[in-house]
Amino acid sequence: MPQYETPLGAGPGAGGPLIRFDGVVKRFGDNTVLDHLDFTVAPGERVTLIGPSGSGKTTILRLLMTLEQVTDGVIWVGGEPLSHMPKGGRLVRANERHQRRVRRQIGMVFQQFNLFPNMTVRQNITEGPVHSLGVPRGEADRRAAELLEMVDLADKIDAHPTQLSGGQQQRVAIARALAMRPRILLLDEVTSALDPELVTGVLDVLRTVAETTDITMLLVTHEMQFARDVSHRVLMFDQGRIVEEGPPEQIFGDPREERTRAFLHAVLD
Amino acid sequence: MDFFIDRLPLYLSGAGTTLVITLLGAALAFVLAMVVGMLGTLRNRAARAVATGYTETFRGVAALVLMYWMAFAIPQLTPYEIDPVFAAVLALGLNVGAYGAEVVRAAINAVPRAQIEATIALNMSWWRRTRSVVLPQAWAQMLPTFGNLVIELMKATAIVSLIGVADLTRVAQEQRAATGETIAAFTGALVVYFVIAQLLIVGMRLLERRANRRLGRLPASDTGLWALLRPPPATAIGGGRR
Amino acid sequence: MTWDWEFTGKIIPDLLDGLVVTVQATLLGYVLALVLGLAVALARRVPVLGTAVFAVMEFIRCTPLLVQLVFVFYLAPSYVSAFTVGVAVLGVHYAAYTAEVYRSGIEGVPPGQWEACRALSLPPHRTWGAVVLPQAIRRVIPALGNYLIAMFKDTPLLFAITVGELMYQASRIGGVYFRYLEAMTLVGLFFLLVSVPSAVLIRRLERRYAAV
Ligand SMILES: Nc1ncnc2c1ncn2[C@@H]1O[C@H](COP(=O)(O)OP(=O)(O)OP(=O)(O)O)[C@@H](O)[C@H]1O
Ligand SMILES: [Mg+2]
């Protein structure tokens, strides 16, 4: 386990970025997926990650959700290290307890929804708030009803996930993530597993979330129009590095890098 | 037939003893299977070593040998006598629990990784995740094999007759000795065993159905009485490791 | 009373004699179970006979081996040895299980294989003998192996009908010397000594064959 020489306080403080990748390296065996990656995301910012398959987009989101652990470097969230924790003036590998505390601010929606089949829609949404956050049952139920209203599934509150279409399941999954009141929401190709006619419903819900909340979002999507509409900034990745970044109008309208142009050309056709 | 009707009370009391030992043994086996099976899924090496040690030992030694050891060797080692029924329940529970632990371990490991990741995204604790996501989903997968193990345990209870407990087998033996009617005496016992087995099968199928309904999956073909009476699947004893 | 090593040494030869009988009974019973189980699995595919065979096997599977042993032991004519009865009952009892294993193996052969046999107009004995059974049996080898271990662990029941296997020797020694500790413990150890390595072996077989 590498011990970090970074003294305490070197991380971004309040008022700084909400997320910061600081020389993050991720390897799977010999395969270096992220190679000293640095980037930051400001509070309330919505950032879209694009790039060819295998460029490391999913890996970035999974590192933030602590589903994977960094090989090297530090990830900071809200001025606190997520991948590491301070100990004796140094940063050491975070233990489970530290990660649980810091990642409370982060929620994620998965490509395959990952709803719990043994629970109703209501239980899926209230499980986290009640048992991870200690929200009283009544309040969690009320909040679940509100969220289902927002995703237009109020009548499905007592349904089982298997009784829902893919699009409906994904909207429940969004409600479930929002019920945790995250500051940061991670969305990894949330419409890729859906039949084309169900995509719009899910994207509309996400547009509403973007318009009505100040949740910081990191999204990976192939829906370029949607990315252009909701994101403040687009990061183009290739082989674990940022090739180009900028506002969506510039990246989509006037890409500077040849690789970005080639990638967009390939997806948009 | 008259033979059997006259002796029905005897057979029923034997069946009662068989049933009590079955249920006590199953309860012990269930607790052991759950605890040891869960230990076997932990990352902690010591916990896994304990689990492996238990399963390999108690699957390796037959319940009969274990029961004799407790009934005859323990009084020699210690000043205590072990009640025969207690020795039998302990031996059967330890033995079947070892098979069950493998079933629990495999079922827990079979819960999709994506489900675990969803619990991390909801910041659940290990215990919460286990209680509300992992076990409910693994449960449906454990039940069919548990059903087979319960039948095997029920059949294995016959060994208590060898250390003097008046179970169904013992009743049959005594009736044969008293009357010389081998066929009647044993056929009676076999039929009662068969009926008990069928009752256990139906009970387990009801549990399975409920578990599957909770997961929102109940194939249309799996309804009606016939489905409840279907025989146990192929790997009953060897099934511990499948 | 505590462990007596000298006594232990004295009883080991008798226990080894018992172990030989245990192994013989296991192997003979297993061969019977393998052959009979296959016959049952095939018979189950015949319309009326199949149902009858199935009912009998289901009955055998749902009732205790011990009762079956004792029952047949009392019924058998006196010139049939207890050992023969033991092997026969073990074999038939386990055939009820191996039959189900074979059946699942046969059902697991892809339909395309049957269709290919039809397309080649293979006669039934070639369809079964050269195509279906080799594939079916290959995939059930680990499951069948599990039943060999299970059967080995069931052989102590034979002592109830006076077959001179391991358990019988141990309880005889116990009765003669009024010492059970050493003999019973050794029986347990013998079983562990055989069961644990064979479980490891089965796991290897599973890795090798089951994925087919
Ligand atoms: N668990 C893992 N074990 C080994 N290699 C992995 C693992 N997860 C990802 N990788 C590798 O890491 C690289 C980046 O994968 P990642 O999933 O982050 O790409 P991506 O940009 O999300 O691609 P896509 O657009 O196809 O989803 C790939 O080469 C992949 O093979
Ligand atoms: Mg991806």
Automatic annotation (TrEMBL), chain A:
Domain called ABC transporter: residue spans: 19-264
Pfam family membership, one: ABC_tran
Cellular component GO terms held in the UniProt record: plasma membrane
UniProt xrefs under SUPFAM superfamilies: P-loop containing nucleoside triphosphate hydrolases
ATP-binding recorded as keyword: yes
Keywords, comma-separated and alphabetical: Amino-acid transport, ATP-binding, Cell membrane, Membrane, Nucleotide-binding, Transport
GO MF annotations, alphabetized: ABC-type amino acid transporter activity; ATP binding; ATP hydrolysis activity
InterPro entries: AAA+_ATPase, ABC_ATPase_HisP-typ, ABC_transporter-like_ATP-bd, ABC_transporter-like_CS, Ectoine_EhuA, MetN_ABC_transporter-like, P-loop_NTPase
Subcellular location as annotated: Cell membrane
Membrane topology type: Peripheral membrane protein
Family: Belongs to the ABC transporter superfamily.
PANTHER family given in the database record: AMINO ACID IMPORT ATP-BINDING PROTEIN (PTHR43166), GLUTAMATE_ASPARTATE IMPORT ATP-BINDING PROTEIN GLTL (PTHR43166:SF9)
UniProt name for this protein: Amino acid ABC transporter ATP-binding protein
Automatic annotation (TrEMBL), chain B:
Residues annotated as transmembrane: 20-39, 60-78, 84-104, 138-163, 183-207
UniProt-listed Pfam families: BPD_transp_1 (PF00528)
Localization of this protein: Cell membrane
One BP annotation, GO: amino acid transport
Bilayer disposition of the protein: Multi-pass membrane protein
Predominant location: membrane
Family annotation (CDD domains): TM_PBP2
Keywords: Amino-acid transport, Cell membrane, Membrane, Transmembrane, Transmembrane helix, Transport
Protein's name in the database: Amino acid ABC transporter permease
Lineage: Bacteria, Bacillati, Actinomycetota, Actinomycetes, Streptosporangiales
From TrEMBL, chain C:
Cellular compartment(s): Cell membrane
InterPro entries: AA_ABC_transptr_permease_3TM (IPR010065), ArtM/GltK/GlnP/TcyL/YhdX-like (IPR043429), Ectoine_EhuD (IPR014341), MetI-like (IPR000515), MetI-like_sf (IPR035906)
Topology of this chain in the membrane: Multi-pass membrane protein
Primary residence: membrane
GO biological process: amino acid transport
Keyword Iron: no
Residue spans crossing the bilayer: 20-42, 49-73, 79-97, 147-168, 180-202
Gene Ontology CC annotations of this record: ATP-binding cassette (ABC) transporter complex
MF terms in GO: transmembrane transporter activity
SUPFAM superfamilies hit by this protein: MetI-like
Domain ABC transmembrane type-1: 15-202
Keywords: Amino-acid transport, Cell membrane, Membrane, Transmembrane, Transmembrane helix, Transport
Pfam families per the UniProt record, alphabetical: BPD_transp_1 (PF00528)
Family under the similarity heading: Belongs to the binding-protein-dependent transport system permease family.
Protein name, as recorded: Amino acid ABC transporter permease
